[in-house]
Amino acid sequence: MSERNHENTGSDSNQQTPFEPSQTLIAPHGGPITDVIFDYCDVLLDWRPWRALEGLYPQGVIDMFFDPADEWGFDFIDRLLDSGVPAREVLAAYGRHHGPAVTWVLRMWLEHEERAIFGVLDGMDQLVGDLQEAGVRVWGLTNFTTEAVDIAHARFSVFSRLQDTIVSSQERLLKPDPALYLRAIDRFAVAPRSTVFFDDNLRNTRGARITGLRGVTFRSAAQARAVLGLS
Asked: Which end of the chain has fewer CB atoms surrounding its CB within 10 Å, N or C?
């Protein structure tokens, strides 16, 4: 989860960043595309973490909980969870910095995290289907917890249609560590030169490029289609 943007904590709107077509048309270069690897959150999955606390706390408390300026805040515990640290240890670490009252907010977030798993991003279900129809293999590589991945797979069929998914919490590795991409390359048996990797975080796409994957910073389904040369 740690690659995601938590800025719009008070809104369910899904903002799409404009892209420059001249920066995305990689399909004609480097040979044919045989495989595509997708990140989950903010690429395939519409993940809205603030929804887990809506109705439980005032907006001011929610904003405090997701404050990106808090060194030991949500982004900190998010990385711990995605690294495979058990929730009880994450609660203890968070409590050492915030005390019992604020730690209870985290406990409530953990108990209601399924609310954050909101849907599939517009156009992505169709894109996965079109790729598979064209004979392109489609995979997942995500900084996430196994519990959250299980919920997403149970709710939305697009995830079960992926060939396989590597989950950071199972591997005890986080993007952009090159070791995680190398593990994906080996496990999926893909050729990096013919594989495109989409992630919404620039650091993660750069990490993928270090290992030879054709990393692209995701903005929207329309942009991804342009990258892949799909009409």
From this structure: C
